[in-house]
Amino acid sequence: MIDLVKEDGLWIVTLNRPDKANSLTGAMLAELAGIAEAAVDAKALILTGAGSVFSAGADLDEARAGLATSDLWERLSNAIAALPCLTVAALNGTLAGGANGMVLACDLRIAVPAAKFFYPVMKLGFLPQPSDPKRMAALIGPSRTKLIFMAGQKITAQEAYGFGLVDRIVEPDALMPTARELVADSVAARPKIAVGIAEMCR
Question: How many other CB atoms are there within 10 angstroms of residue 166's CB atom?
Fold first, then answer.
C-alpha cells in the first residue's frame, strides 16, 4: 500500500490505498517512517497519493484501537523534517487528520484545485501530534492554525494557498511534472551543495 520508486537520486513515495481514501494503517505508517529514515541518501523526495484523495488520515478502525495516539506519526514527520534533501508533498486531493503531519514536515507543498484541508481532532476526541500545530503555525500563524485545529474548519486549496499552507496550485495533470520540476536542480546538484543550501534555510 506504499509504493516507492527510485530514479537517479529522486525518491517518489506514493500512498496507494485509493479504495480507502489512502487512510493510514499502523503498518503503512511504519513503512513510511522506515522509508523516510532511509532517504538520507536521496537527493530529493516527492510524497504523493493514488486516486483522488491524498489521505483521509488514520484508518478509523485502527484509530479507535490506539493508532491515533501512536508515536509512529511523530517518528514519520520528524524523519521527513530531518532529511537534508528537498522534500515535496504533491497533494493529489484532500488532506485530512494525522496525514497533515508528514505533509507539514515537507519543504514544499503543491496541490490540485479540488483539494481540501482539515484536521478534525477535537470532533474525534484526540489531541493532534505535538509537532503538527507547531509546524503549521510556523507556516500560517497561530490564528489560522487554531481555525483549522480548534475551530475544525475545512479550507479549500485556494484558501490554503492564500494562507501559505501550500506553495502552488496546479491542475491534476500537471501535479507530478511540477513536483519533478521543483526538485530537478536538487537532483542534478552535487550532494554537498544541496545539503549546504538546505542547512542555510533551516
Answer: 24
pTM attached to this predicted model: 0.94
pLDDT digits (tens, 9 = 90+) for 113-163: 999 999 987 777 778 999 999 999 999 999 999 999 999 999 999 999 999
Enumerate helices (H) and strands (E) in the chain, giving the number of each. Answer: 10, 10
C-alpha cell recorded at residue 146: 487554531
pLDDT in tens, 11-66: 999 999 999 999 999 999 999 999 999 999 999 999 999 999 999 999 989 988 89
Q: How far apart are CA 97 and CA 183, in angstroms?
A: 27
CA proximity to 112, closest of 48, 66, 199: 48
Sheet architecture: strand order including 2-7: 2-7, 10-15, 44-49, 86-91, 108-111, 168-169
Please, is 5 exposed, middle or buried when counting C-beta atoms within 10 Å of its C-beta (0-12, 13-18, 19+)? exposed
What is the CA angle 159-112-78, rounded to 5? 80
Q: Report the greatest alpha carbon distance in the chain.
A: 47
Q: What is the DSSP string of 148-176?
A: HHTS---EEHHHHHHHTS-SEE--GGGHH
Residue 180: φ, ψ to 5° = -65, -40
For 71, what's the count of Cα atoms within 13 Å in the CB-facing half-sphere?
0
Domain spanning 2-200, CATH architecture = Alpha-Beta Complex (3.90)
